[in-house]
Structures are given as C-alpha cells and as structure tokens.
Amino acid sequence: MNSTRAVHVPNKTSKMSKGSKGSGARPQGSSLGAGRRVLRGVALAATVPYLVLKSAWLSGSRAGIPEGSPLLEPGMFLTLANAVTLAMDACVILLVLALTRPWGMRLPPWLLTVPAFAATGLLTPILTAFPAQLLILAVDPGARAPAEGAVRPFLDSWVFTVVYTGFTIQGLALAGLFVPYARERWGRHWQGVRGRGLPSPTGVVAGAVAVCAVLVAGVHVYWALGGTGGMGAERAAARSATAGVVPGVHAICLLAAGAGALLLARGGSRRVWRPLALTWTGSAAALCWGLWPLIASLGTQLDGGEHPSGTVRLIYAGQMITGVLAAAVLARFLASRREA
Q1: Helices 48-58, 34-46: inter-axial angle, 10-degree rounding
Q2: On the chain, which terminus has fewer CB atoms closer than 10 Å, C or N?
C-alpha cells in the first residue's frame, strides 16, 4: 500500500506541474492584465495614422504633400517604397497580436524575435530623438527641423509630427508588451548572473564590436556637435540644432552595442539582463539604421537632394557591421544559456 502511494503521488504532482507550466506559458487574451490590454489598444491605434497616409498616397491622394514635392513625380521607386513601408507598419499589428494572444506563444522563436528585433532597431532612435527635437524646438522655436533644409518642399510639417508621434507611441507600447512576453517564454535565459565568459573566438568578435562602435560613434559625435566634414555640401548646409540630435542618438546606440557585447563575452557575477538589454537595443538600432539608409541611398533621394557622400555611406556600413557583430555575440550568449 505504501509503495503504491509512493508511485502515484509523484505522477500526480508531475502532471500538475506540467499543466501549470503550460497554462502559465500560454496566457489567454482574457487573462491579460489591464495594463497590457491598454498597451495593446494603444499600439494598434498608433499604427492608424501611418497606414491611412500610406494607403492614401498609394491611391493617388496628395494629402500632406506640398506643391513641387518630388513625391508628386511619377515613378515606380516611390510607389514601391510606399508599399514596402505600408507593409512594415502593418506587420506591427501582427506583432502586437502575437505578443498578446495565445497563438503567439506557439510561434517558432525566430518568427517572433526577428520582427521584434527589427522593430526595436527602427523605433528606438525615433522614440529617443523625436522627443529631444521637440524639446529643443520648445526651448528655441527658431531651431530648424531637419526636413526644412530639403532642396525642395518634401512633406508638410504636420505629417512629420503625426507620423513620428505614432512611431514613438508604437515603440513604447511594444516595449511594454515584449518584456512580459519574453519573461514568460524565455525568462530562464536572461535571469540570474552572466556566469562564465564566452569562448575566445566570441571574445574576439566582441572586441571587434567595441572597436567599430567607438570609431563610428566618434564620427557621429563629431556631427552631433556641429561638425560637417564628410557630410556633403547640401547636408552640411541643412545643419541645425534638431538635426544634430540624430547622430548623437546613433552614437549612444553604437556604444551601447559595444559595451553590452563586451560584458556578455566577459561573463561575471552581475545580473545578466542589463548587458542583454544594451546589446539587444544597441545592435538592433545600429544594424537597422545602417542597413536601411544604405539601401535607400542607392535609389532616388525622396527629398530631391544629393545622394549621400562616400563618407556617409561608409558610416552606414560601419553601423551595419557593428550591429551584425553585436547581434552575433548576443545570439552566441543566448545559445550558451540554452546549452547550460
């Protein structure tokens, strides 16, 4: 009798443990806290202005486009650019639902982390730089916004305000949704301390990340402080206090990627989530804002101005390389946590 109980009790406990783990890892939409439900609604609402504008432009509307803007010129490149960016913002809706619906927990990890990584990279500099630019304009209304230096009228000023306000809200809401999702699904990988350092080859890569980050960030700091060397004549002429915020933010993201990669490679007894957050955010921003403008520089310039100079393109490439290497260190660190 006693031996029979000894067999049945652990089995029952095991089943209860498995059941509780499964239910905890797949929260139902109705069981989301009020805060997450609000964030979901806010994130979805924040996509509407951009989606409406892009859809209107693809349908032939001229809303927000002044007379003489290069956006009014016919061309397949502009149509394709509008379609691609419309699809990118529509993906935010899918990402929000994946982070808050039960089926999101059943997605393959890469199918969620890749768009989340891209969203982090594209939105982090915007939600950091845009409020800073608004603050500068509030203190000094005479400071010119970056778009005002364009060769020809590009978009009405209200378009930038509406669009970048929406992007800022999207970024904050997605961060508020992704963190609890990651805690529920992968919390064991980024809790605790960093532990043992990574193998030597990864340490070499982390060192390369740090060197690239410092070099490229140095150029961005030079531009942020008012330097114009290597920018090209038109970009130099369009310099302003608000425009200087952007390279300053890029420099911070690059340095975050370099510092985070070094800390992950070294290991140690300090908590792991801080260097993970630095590397995730910094590498995503560096990669996305190196790759995206580098691709855009190969096509028609939407503001009708000159193409980026060779130096600017080199900096884009440096950002992209830094981001790729830092992301590789991040992936290797997470793989080592899984193996452990």
Answers
A1: 20
A2: N
